[in-house]
Design brief:
five-stranded mixed sheet, alpha/beta, binds histidyl-adenosine monophosphate
């Protein structure tokens, strides 16, 4: 049996009602904060992520779903280039069959002058191929056509093969594949900030001033699956990005985004979150800090776990993310970025905190919070939630003031976040049953010909926003009423020949058992008024 891939899952009703509840709530919140939706492709050039998220990060080094877009073999590539060049007046046939002869060359090309070319493609020509091609040429010539035999390859034949080719009468044509577009490396997006910044640059979005964009969609990381960690997971994210002159660099943006998050989490009923806040400095601070960190790590690094040791070399800041318990006392003693912030960076961070205090959003300073992506500068944050266990980060984000430049764009300070929607849904107190709307009415057609009448009534009721489920005329009344109760409908509407004639229908309240006759025209109001 074919099952869903490890780390991916089907989201089924009624749980999908919770997802819709969350997405509707977040769209409402984005609307009043004047954010607009952006949808970028689910796959991008691999380089985009390597250059933004960073080559040395776990995400890029280990977790991306990457493939060469054009995995066709060299032969197929040769074939398509050769066919593209073939003059229009030539007619070609794939794998032409010659009765009584086993070998089929790749193509037979018929020319207007009645001559024929037999063509084979190979990136590793051998004497055997040349021999076979030659034999088939002879066999076809016996058929009475003028036959040329040709081998298309991507490299010159070696000396001895050249001799064989000449002796058996095979012409060779070399197509140098280096002259053609290389295979493109593509990656399923592991996150969406890189795609948004790419789109910002590609569509000159700076012309609009400040951009406040949000997205909801799947992301892909080949992580070890466990509760709250999937290989296809969903993010609800937002980015504020624009030229500094539009206010994109202001600490007011950081605070606005964090306050939005607090509002949203409260709105969906998640109250016991903790906002962990840090500043990881500007480019200048980072250089001095990295140097200090390297120095401090030098005498102790050999005592650390292998993974932490690797981080110490490739990206010392990421040492703070090492989870190995025995390394924690060492990490605790390392210098912190907070001690290295320059004047402007420190002020910026202070102002973020001041605004947060003034709007009443609580936070905890955590100078070990470094984030797992390389593009961050200054403000970095995570919201954690106790109920989630090991994967307790419900969302994360921060500033990325140099990202646009590093992707070849103009200076465009920005800040954003992404909520792990899977984790958010897990943390909801609300049950799926509570948010899923049940049918208002179940229509029970009784007897032959009544499906038609029922369909007409259902169409009418649905136009009035009544959630309607339809039975079938082949069901007995008992079965219809049982089904109606099972799906949680509030009413059953009985549609039989007598009702249709009278223009009034039996409406049964499935909770109280009360049954009344309701004139056709009053049905929508009657059903809605008792909601
Ligand atoms: P991130 O911290 O890598 O940041 O991911 C954000 C959130 O996505 C995490 O806090 C977590 O809730 C969720 N998440 C990550 N990986 C998984 C997984 N394998 N399974 C389930 N949930 C997961 C970013 O992605 C940045 N792009 C955020 C950002 C936007 N920074 C600036 N703008």
């Amino acid at each position: 049996m074919i099952k869903a891939i490890r780390g991916t899952r089907d989201l089924l009703p009624p749980e999908t009602a919770l997802w819709n509840f969350v997405e509707a709530a977040v769209r409402d919140v984005f609307r009043v904060y004047n954010f607009h939706e952006i949808r970028t492709p689910i796959f991008e050039e691999t380089q985009l992520f390597a250059r933004s998220v960073g080559e040395e990060t776990d995400i890029v080094a280990k977790e991306m779903y990457t493939w060469d877009d054009d995995r066709r073999s060299v032969e197929t590539k040769l074939e398509s280039i050769w066919l593209d060049r073939l003059p229009k007046e030539a007619e070609y046939f794939a794998q032409p069959n010659l009765p009584g002869f086993d070998y089929k060359p790749r193509f037979r090309v018929d020319w207007p002058d009645n001559s024929v070319t037999l063509v084979e493609f190979s990136s590793q020509p051998s004497a055997q191929i040349l021999e076979e091609l030659s034999q088939s040429g002879k066999a076809w010539s016996k058929h009475g056509e003028r036959v040329q035999i040709k081998l298309v390859t991507d490299r010159p034949l070696t000396g001895s093969l050249m001799q064989v080719a000449a002796s058996v009468g095979v012409h060779t044509e070399i197509i140098d594949l280096r002259d053609f577009e290389p295979f493109q490396s593509l990656t399923l997006r592991p996150e969406n900030t890189a795609g948004v910044v790419r789109a910002y640059i590609e569509h000159n979005l700076w012309e609009r001033g400040l951009n406040k964009l949000y997205y909801i969609g799947p992301q892909f990381r080949r992580e070890r699956p466990q509760k709250g960690r999937y290989r296809q997971f969903y993010q609800i994210g937002a980015e504020i990005i624009g030229p500094a002159s539009a206010g994109s660099e202001s600490p007011a943006r950081d605070a606005e985004l964090l306050e939005l998050l607090a509002t949203f989490l409260d709105r969906v009923g998640i109250t016991d979150w903790t906002l962990q806040l840090n500043s990881i400095g500007c480019a200048n601070d980072r250089a001095a800090y990295n140097e200090a960190l390297r120095k401090a790590l030098e005498p102790v690094v050999s005592k650390m776990d292998a993974d932490c040791q690797r981080r110490a070399v490739t990206n010392p800041l990421r040492v703070f993310d090492c989870k190995v318990p025995k390394d924690q006392p060492i990490i605790e003693k390392l210098p912190r970025i907070s001690q290295f912030l320059d004047e402007s960076c420190r002020k910026h961070f202070e102002q973020v905190q001041e605004i947060l205090k003034s709007v009443g959003v609580e936070f905890q300073l955590n100078d070990r919070l470094v984030r797992g992506l390389d593009y961050y500068t200054r403000t970095a944050f995570e919201f954690t939630h106790g109920a989630l266990g090991a994967q307790n980060a419900i969302l994360g984000g921060g500033r990325y003031d140099g990202l646009s430049e590093s992707l070849g764009g103009p200076s465009a300070p920005g800040i954003g976040f992404a909520i792990g929607e899977d984790r958010l849904v897990m943390a909801l107190k609300e049950s799926a049953e509570a948010v899923q709307r049940k049918p208002d009415v179940y229509i029970a057609p009784l007897g032959p010909g009544m499906n038609r009448e029922a369909a007409r009534l259902a169409r009418e009721l649905r136009h009035h926003d009544v959630i309607t489920e339809l039975g079938d005329e082949s069901f007995r009344l008992k079965k219809s009423l049982e089904t109606a109760s099972k799906i949680g409908a509030r009413f059953a509407l009985i549609v039989g020949e007598n009702e249709v004639k009278a223009g009034a229908f039996a409406l049964k309240n499935l909770q109280s058992g009360e049954q009344i006759s309701v004139p056709h025209s009053e049905l929508p109001q009657k059903i809605q008024s008792s909601r």
